[in-house]
Amino acid sequence: MKMPALPIEGGCRCGRVRFRISVPPLMAMACHCIGCQKMSGSAFSTSLAVPEAGFAVIAGETVVGGMHDYPHHQHCDSCKSWVFTRLKPAAGFINVRATMLDDARWFAPLIESYTSEALPWARTGAKYSFAQFPASDEYPALIAEYQASQPSIPA
Fold this sequence. Notes:
Helices cover 12% and strands 32% of the residues. It has two helices and eleven strands; from the N terminus they run βββαββββββββα. It has helices spanning 34-40, 139-149; strands spanning 8-11, 18-21, 27-31, 45-51, 55-59, 62-65, 72-76, 82-86, 93-97, 111-113, 128-129. It starts with 7 loop residues before the first strand and ends in a 6-residue tail after the last helix.
């Protein structure tokens, strides 16, 4: 399934927090780290790396959850859904939980990280797997490949 036309919207389980993505995501990924397992209540978390300038909370407010240090995991204060993550200041992108999209059926991770902590039965079908995170010099090629794989999306 292909990515829908922009903007793409989503929100928390109860609907009090709503967000809008207005630019194409840089990357689609899954993380198998134990922290993501505990935060998501699942075998892994899914996310879209979205340029900060193309992401906006359009309704409600989020609160910091999880470990309360960077990264700041943003949750709905009412339903406690993990909506997105702000990395260190000036990172330039937000990790949006893909399952918070209004329609996440098109989402498929290109990469999966922290497979060293993955549950033995958990598989995502991602093209690339990393024992931890990719090396910083690997990201430009991964981002270019992900963006090239997406159809041109009119805003």
